[in-house]
């Protein structure tokens, strides 16, 4: 696709000339791009720039250009060639703004130099920072103490196959690639913002060949889930998704040998498409992220400002992917927040705002997406703390005494309460804009998942307690969590269900079912066991009613069908119930069996304030009926 910048554009009609203020030059950005501080790129022979065409806006030049401040030469050389710059570049890819980036250079890749590696930072600090292209490896210093070794892509294996892969990917979707890109940025990107939209569209306007094959394939694959949301595409047959997935996964194994930010982006998007079914790919994404230095604080690096924001978003996307996958797959996490110094993501790290939002029906909202991402990152920190208390695999208790466990988790419960209280009104489940999709559901499902993960561990530890009253209180609290989670699923509206749900959603729904089954298996009374068995049947039925054309619900149902049969005969005979580490007792202890005719008192040696603990977990949830009361506070502040 041939593209020209405004400097190469010609005024094709008197009407176009009239749009330009007197004395202005046609090489400046249009009004929309200048207000958004975006690069104004125009395809050859077109009267509108790429972004105005994409958003179906008028491409005008009515406003007078802003006066520019003169800068010293050294400042100009170090200045970020950000998307906001109105600089003019040739359509020649060799002069792309990506050439000044660290993680997205077109022809080379950079690997982070750790302090304990064979490279000696003290020696490199004596050298001049070298930034540019070369036929040989070189070291790039991005601040006083941070170095990267840069290597040309052509020196890595399988590089020559990249053009073949990208051409085959494009042939698979032709001529629908641009439509799929539009769908992706309408529905997926606003609520999972791990790309830089303006950079992506600028590259796409030049040529699809500028992309890493697995990244472009992943964008196409995700967008195909909303194929019917485009009027033109809905009349056509879908491309071969299995072929596209094969090309994406095969090419991903090749590009990890020359790691770039696009490699991390591709891996994260493919994991969302998989429904989160690959712990191995999660491991690869974490490894590539660390190769690229995403675990480091990049605030002071001499890279473009927009790349700093992108790096922060990607760092937290990787942290969230790893932490949630570890919790839901029962694996030790790769990422330790103690070893990752990346700063918390803030609103300033997101280049798009509500002004960039697509107004078509069935789109998602940019402002909600930014705050959703930030809030999910904060929830992930709480989950990481829970994993530290409940064991690295989330399966085997590290605290043998129930009383000690409750004491340890109470501060976490308080943090969870504060997290919920800080939620902006725009992230409430009831905040649904007419004819817009709403992805708030996957944030709230994540919250219920954290509750269940913690209470599941408490229920496991109940088996070693000799205090029947405390066990009863724990089981009652656990029951409330189940009812709240099931009620949440029941209240989902079509605007929620048809929006983007991230990879952990399917596993989280399955967790609700397995948690239900755990409460059945550990029920001391047959009537209680019958209640949980009926709840699981009702939950399955509720999911079946919602499964049509909803991938994450379908995946959840398939996994729930693999659960062991809830056989009351086995439960009543108190068969062996073992955990992975053998901590779970061989039989349900007689001390856990509640005698309804015997008065129960909590022993004086442990007086636990359960009301405060329970309040900390569900400050905005209704009574034991499971009816959720949505957060309604007039004094609610917003995240920053």
TrEMBL record:
Single GO BP term: nitrogen catabolite activation of transcription from RNA polymerase II promoter
One Pfam family, short name please? Fungal_trans
Question: Which SUPFAM superfamilies does this entry report, sorted A to Z?
Answer: Zn2/Cys6 DNA-binding domain
Biased composition annotated in UniProt, kind: Polar residues: 1-15, 87-96
Q: Does the keyword DNA-binding apply?
A: yes
The entry's keywords = DNA-binding, Metal-binding, Nucleus, Transcription, Transcription regulation
Establish whether keyword Transcription is in the entry. Answer: yes
Q: List every stretch annotated Disordered.
A: 1-24, 66-96
Top-level taxon of origin: Eukaryota
Stretches assigned to the Zn(2)-C6 fungal-type domain: 29-61
Annotated Gene Ontology MF terms?
DNA binding; DNA-binding transcription factor activity, RNA polymerase II-specific; zinc ion binding
Which CDD domains did the record assign?
fungal_TF_MHR, GAL4
Annotated Gene Ontology cellular components are: nucleus
Recorded protein name is Zn(2)-C6 fungal-type domain-containing protein
